[in-house]
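Hi team, as promised in this morning's meeting, here are the two structures we talked about. I've kept the exact order from the run log so nobody has to guess. The first one is mostly here for context; it's the second one we should focus on when we meet again. Sequence first, then the predicted structure tokens.
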Amino acid sequence: MKAIVFGMLFIGLTSLGYAQELNNEAKEEETQEVVLEGVTVTALNMDYLEKVHDEVTPEVVKELENKAARFKIKGTPIYFNDVGPYEVHFSNNKGNIIATYNRKGKIMVSSEKFKDVASPVAVRNSVYNEYPDWEIKSSVYLVSYHYNKGVKKLYQFQIGKDNSKKNLKIDMDGNILN
């Protein structure tokens, strides 16, 4: 009886040892990407991020926009399946976002305002070229997003020289709008 038990134990342990080894085919499969034909997996608010983010978006702005995009309205106590829209406020030390979500959790509209964040070179150069002896006193970066209409971005600057002040609105291409 002992011989049978030890024999079964030996066979069982031996088979476990072989189960842990990977053959060459399995190793190759680990590095391959799995592609499912006809299936596209994207984040719910990826279109929002693609429209509001670009290469010159300040990092502090991107962080808050990412937080708004990842927010799951369905996990909140105020969520009801057949009710909507939901308005959610996000803020950090530089600004805030007011995002409106539909009942599925998609951002439909957002209004964003950030104070004294780094402006793109084209925007700064536009101010310095048009008003060479003036100093930038303050800046506000505004983003307005609508899922059907796209995104509008602009900077508002208050510039000063001696005792004079001037308010400017500048688009992302550096065009002074007023």
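And here is the second protein, the one for discussion:
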Amino acid sequence: MSLNLTGVTLTYPDGEDRLTALDQVTLDVPKGTLTVVAGPSGSGKSSLLAVAATLVTPDSGTVTVDGTSTTGMSRRARTDLRRRSVGIVFQQPNLLASLTAVEQLQVMAQIDGRRPARARGRAMELLAAVGLAAQAGRRPHQLSGGQRQRVNIARALMNDPTVLLVDEPTSALDHERGAAVIDLLARLTHERGTATVLVTHDRTHLTAADQVAEVDDGRLTRCALRPPAPAANRR
């Protein structure tokens, strides 16, 4: 398993009491599969993603990323693990206005200490994978909303993560562009072998999933893993 949550409980202060955001959640995400975590607003989806990303430490339970348990890790060690093994696609692309599409990706590699020439080659490869090779020299204001989200996805893959975490990637897109982004994520997951978790309240995205997890009031109420589709049927 590339991502495993076992018995995870997370609470937040709520006046004199504590509010339970996640209640004994267990979830296995095999490599090369897309898990869609569905549920209404306030159900615990974002908390699950934050715990999986090691951005938040749970009260109890274990989180294992690519075979490494995060229990007892220092903040610096968790940061290193995220940089090495976890890609995060935020709800809003938050691209840097002054940088071109290819430069958005190069920055990620440079932070990780990679050589500029090698970083550019990797960035161009990923932009081609998301269908944006021809837009590599364009800045965010020259790209459509769907194109900006594709740059966001490519940027998250820049350091070749084993785990990809995606937060409501279609919330600012229309149905057609949103469906294209979901299809792209499914294809990249299968091609690159990432353990991908996508949280959404839009149930139309469930058909793209290899595994569907339902979250309600902080509890994982249902989790079904579908048999992998034949390679010829995958995009």
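Starting points for discussion:
Helices lie at 45-52, 75-85, 101-111, 116-129, 145-156, 175-192.
Confidence is low (pLDDT under 50) at residues 230-235.
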